[in-house]
Amino acid sequence: MRRGRRGRAGGFTYLGLLVLVTLIGVLLAAAGEVASTSAQRERETELLFIGHQFRDAIASFYRHTGHYPFTLEELVTAPTQGPAPAHFLRRVYRDPMTREANWIILPGPGGGVMGVASASQRAPLKRAGFDDVDPMFDQAQTYSDWNFVFDPRPPLPAGQGSPATYGAGR
Q1: pTM summary value
Q2: What string of H, E and C letters represents the secondary structure of 109-137?
């Protein structure tokens, strides 16, 4: 008879271990999801920083030369009147969302690079709280809709045009 009771006790222990392993698996999956979301938020923050760096570098280049750069590499070492090349940007950054230097180039009027956008088609987590220089970002469906553009024209007064067709839009 004792062997029968031990068999039942062993069965309950085995069932308890299965429940414990399942519970640990569910908790690890939830922790992985939190870590993934946190990493995406960090990459979004990095994308905003790098996008602003590109926009500022394009603006500085434009003010210095009177035209848009023809390539992103030109922002790193642009020819100047002086003995040393100008550095409007330290380097051509990688897109934090794709982890490659595969930016979408937004052409300016008359040619050149007016701005950049991420090549990522993922939906952004951030939907509000953008800087004033980032109009329409709160309506973006993908990261590629975050257009970091320098437009030397003054913004239109309210009611005289759409931001989607003027200034920072594509």
Answers
A1: 0.74
A2: CCCCEEEEECCCCCCCCCCCCCCCCCCCH
